Amino acid sequence: MRARSAKIRGWLVSLVSTSLVMGLGTSPLVKAQQNIVPGNAMTVRSDIQEANSKTGVITARGNVQVFYPARKMQATSAQAQYFSRERRLVMTGNVYVLQEGNSIRAETMTYLVDEGRFIATPQTSQQVESIYLVKDNETSPQPAASPTPAPIPSPSLPAAPIINPQ
Known about the structure:
Blueprint: H1 2-21, H2 29-34, E1 43-45, E2 48-52, E3 57-68, E4 73-83, E5 88-99, E6 102-112, E7 117-121, E8 129-131
Antiparallel strand pairs: 1-3, 2-3, 3-4, 4-5, 5-6, 6-7, 6-8
């Protein structure tokens, strides 16, 4: 039974992957798919996936993992929906995104592919958390200027006499 379940899951993954690559059959997505550069593939892994050829929406549920090497992005969530016509990815449920060392954590996150922009919202009474790597300036900072030293008396000037007050 377990082997059959694994075989069915593998078949479904192949079917969904093929549907994504083929532009979901005869839908208007075929033109959009033809313009995609092969290195720009976004890979979605999950426990369950559904694709609707009429709406162009792909839904992934359970342990969702998204890999988008062209944008150096990785993400995890409980659920994700990719709206192929709008080129929009909506992730929900404990969303974590890592991109070039920067990270963001939220309850819901929308990624607008064409703009490369994230829109994150937290759970009620919570906050979105972002961690950004901040690079130092390329040039090294200049050392602090040393204080101007006191002038050294010239040997040609007579020394002031010492006065003893009495």
